[in-house]
Amino acid sequence: MPELAISADKVAFIIEKAREFDVKEGDSDPDSGSNPSDDDALDVLEDDGSDPVVQELGSFMIALNEDEQVDLVALTWLGRGDGTIDEWGDLRARAAEARTEYRSPRRETVHYLLGEPMLGDLLADGLDAFGIDWTDERTTADSSGPSQQDEDEPTKQR
After folding, report:
1. 46, β-bridge pairs
2. Would the CA dihedral through 98, 74, 63, 113 be positive or negative?
3. Which letter does DSSP use for residue 157 in this model?
4. How many C-beta neighbours within 10 Å does residue 71 have?
5. In the prediction, which pLDDT does 148 show?
6. Is 35 left (phi over 0), alpha (psi -120 to 50) or beta?
7. What is the CB neighbour count within 10 angstroms for residue 63?
8. Of the ranges 18-22, 137-141, 143-147, which one carries the lowest mean pLDDT score?
9. Which of the chain's ends, N or C, has fewer CB atoms near its CB within 10 Å?
10. Residue 44: what pLDDT?
11. CA 109/CA 62 separation, integer angstroms
């Protein structure tokens, strides 16, 4: 079985954030004329281009190293059915080759991924092909520290 350069925790974070963004829709009612406080409840599911989820997701992905970004693209393609787990090396090579066409590879890779419909589902399917259950007790995006819940709880005797 091939190995990933990116941790399952990082991919899980991206899956969760991408799914938050995927439920958004375009501006469907720009001039409704109804009660503004009622409109706010509807507007939460609209994508107006300044979505903090997209900003957080983009910032997270741009901070990844080249190998991690290549894995994300290859996982997306694997999840989309563009290859099989047995063709992982080829998928990765194609993803690395695609980066060479970009003037700003790090930024343009993120732009490409954010433009991929159903990115979260594709990445989840890609991890499934590896036999990785990304939903297992994930604590943080990079697993570098305790979860927020642990920080808020009183210190426990061990």
Report:
1. 25
2. positive
3. P
4. 28
5. 37
6. beta
7. 13
8. 143-147
9. C
10. 47
11. 8
